Amino acid sequence: MRETPVQDKWAWIAGPVAVVLGLAAHMVAGGSAPAIPVVLAFAALAALAAQLIARWVHGPLLLLLFSGLAQQLLHFGFVAFGGFFAGSGLLDHLHSGQVLGDVPAGAAPSGGSVHLLLYTHMAAAILTLLVAAGVAKLAAQKRAQPLRRANHSL
Predict the structure, then answer these.
(1) Is residue 21 a contact partner of residue 126, using CB atoms and an 8 Å limit?
(2) Are 64 and 18 in contact (CB under 8 A)?
(3) Contacts 24+ apart (CB under 8 A), 113-120
(4) Is the pLDDT of residue 92 over 50?
(5) How far apart are CA 61 and CA 139, in angstroms?
(6) Distance of CA 67 to the CA centre of its chain
(7) Please, where are the H alpha helices in 6-113?
(8) Which of 119, 126, 128, 144 is deepest in the core (most CB within 10 A)?
């Protein structure tokens, strides 16, 4: 029976890291956070996706592409499930009869600047790439250690 490579065992870490970095980026840019169960569901789905694509993604450019795609999907999820109501504040609801003014041209529907949201999510994608590459490098070193020990004992 073939042993599962260490890289495949630890690939799931990139998913929750992407969610945490994406949430931090989204909140730094002025967006709101969804409820904790929603964030946990996103983390579980991202861990599953990272584990599934670990066998096929080996180059840094493909990994960066998937990191960027994950950040885009996370942004849409945070906007869809976040608690921000444009024009009335973070926790207020729209049933009070308030008339909402026009949204400024540079404002995103999630409450932050469109450009700042883009830059912070791009930074989160790059950091996710670095973390995933670091985990893969550590996994490769752990895989090589038993081989070195076997060669030294001969």
Answers:
(1) no
(2) no
(3) 113/29, 113/30, 116/28, 116/29, 116/30, 117/25, 117/26, 117/29, 117/30, 117/31, 117/75, 119/29, 120/25, 120/26, 120/28, 120/29
(4) no
(5) 19
(6) 7
(7) 6-9, 14-28, 36-53, 60-81
(8) 128
Provide φ and ψ at 20, rounded to 5°.
-65, -45
Angle at 143 between CA 51 and CA 8, to 5 degrees: 5
Measured CA to CA, the distance from residue 103 to residue 126 in angstroms comes to 30
Instruction: Give residue for tokens 């790059």.
Output: 126
Q: How many CB atoms lie within 10 A of CB 102?
A: 7
Look up tokens 């450019």; give the residue: 61
Beta bridge partners of 113: 107
